[in-house]
């Protein structure tokens, strides 16, 4: 998968997404957060694009929550301002549309990818709408069963959009307790669906995202706030600036430590191998023309780059000495016929 200028998936750096939808007070604070995120090395800032009437019924029991959702509405112009701030700081701007009208608005702004919340995992009408844009779609799987995820994968395949699907393991609890993170699900999803897999984290701290990378997550999503003591679940489970910088640093460090899935010895280890491995050494005086027998030889460390490694012992036994070999001689190939 490619999101603008960045490759996402195995062999590429972890794509780090910071959710700020409900953690900034005004547009100026949002821009400050964008600048901090970019400087810390994150890849994307994400908000939510909410039109209350597309998301929730407005009745007596929902009225207060509905009004809160109305307060989260961002105009197209506000989206443009945040997108431009992201472009200025070389960080991607993403959003989660909570309805088809908001999805169309985001598409008109040429969004590089779309994020689908766990709430909309089985909202197939919204998914089909966004699939029609032929853009990468990152889908959180919180509250989702295996059969539901199977259905999502089938939907993407039917619409010839399998190449645009990334599934994020997620627990839709705030905060997610350590015993409910179930990070082994990352490997399960990766194996079952053969697509890009990531992790959307609602736990406290930065441990889970780092472990997720070691489990094979190619995308990590985490809430970001300037002050975790503010009221609201997103602040509580989010990272502040100091934690953000530490998280990015540890994720990048984890990537280096994970290395390649191929067995490739680094140059320093190859040198160490030659230096430390036991070599074939004469255990007695050998005369020119003598046949080398097992009792004539020892396998010893030599603290030398010269000599023949122990793996070739059986190849040396039975060969003829090409020169005199005094006791404790480190045998080299030129010494034998």
- Tally of domains: 2
Count of runs of 4 or more consecutive helical residues = 13
Strand content: 15-25%
CATH superfamily of the largest domain: Aldolase class I
- The overall pLDDT average reads 97
Rg from Cα: 29 Å
Alpha carbon gap, first and last residue: 57 Å
Q: Rough shape?
A: elongated
Helix amount: 25-40%
The unreliable regions are none
- Regarding CATH, which class of the largest domain? Alpha Beta
Structural class: alpha/beta
- What would CATH call the architecture of the largest domain? Alpha-Beta Barrel
Number of strands: 12
Give structural notes:
Helix content is 37%, strand content 16%. It is an alpha/beta fold and 337 residues long. The protein has 2 domains: 9-258, Alpha-Beta Barrel (TIM Barrel), CATH 3.20.20.70; 267-335, Type Iii Antifreeze Protein Isoform Hplc 12, CATH 3.90.1210.10. The strands form 3 sheets. It has an 8-stranded parallel β-sheet with strand order 5-4-3-10-9-8-7-6. The longest helix is centred in the C-terminal third of the chain and has 18 residues, at 241-258. The protein is elongated, with a radius of gyration of 29 Å. It starts with a strand and ends in a 21-residue tail after the last helix.
């Amino acid at each position: 998968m490619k999101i603008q200028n960045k490759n996402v998936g195995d062999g590429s750096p972890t794509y780090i997404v910071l959710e700020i939808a409900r953690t900034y007070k005004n547009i100026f604070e949002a821009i400050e957060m964008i600048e901090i995120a970019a400087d810390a090395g994150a890849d994307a800032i994400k908000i939510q694009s909410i039109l209350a009437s597309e998301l929730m019924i407005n009745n007596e029991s929902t009225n207060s929550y509905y009004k809160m959702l109305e307060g989260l509405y961002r105009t197209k112009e506000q989206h443009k301002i945040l997108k431009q701030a992201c472009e200025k700081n070389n960080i991607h701007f993403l959003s989660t549309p909570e309805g088809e009208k908001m999805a169309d608005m985001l598409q008109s702004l040429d969004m590089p990818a779309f994020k689908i919340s766990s709430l909309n995992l089985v909202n197939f009408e919204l998914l089909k709408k966004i699939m029609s844009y032929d853009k990468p779609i990152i889908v959180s799987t919180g509250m989702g069963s295996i059969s539901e995820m199977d259905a999502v994968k089938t939907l993407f395949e039917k619409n010839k959009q399998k190449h645009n699907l990334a599934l994020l393991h997620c627990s839709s609890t705030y905060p997610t307790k350590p015993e409910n993170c179930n990070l082994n699900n990352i490997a399960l999803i990766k194996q079952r669906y053969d697509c890009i897999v990531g992790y959307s984290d609602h736990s406290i701290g930065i441990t889970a995202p780092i472990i997720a990378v070691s489990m094979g997550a190619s995308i990590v999503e985490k809430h970001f706030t300037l002050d975790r003591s503010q009221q609201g679940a997103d602040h509580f489970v989010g990272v502040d600036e100091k934690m953000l910088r530490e998280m990015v640093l540890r994720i990048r460090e984890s990537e280096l430590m994970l290395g390649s899935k191929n067995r490739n010895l680094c140059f320093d280890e190859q040198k160490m191998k030659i230096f430390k491995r036991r070599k074939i050494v004469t255990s007695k005086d050998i005369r020119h023309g003598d046949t080398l027998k097992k009792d004539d030889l020892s396998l010893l460390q030599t603290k030398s780059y010269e000599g023949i490694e122990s793996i070739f012992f059986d190849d040396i036994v039975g060969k003829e000495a090409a020169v005199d070999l005094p006791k404790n001689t480190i045998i080299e190939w030129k010494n034998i016929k």
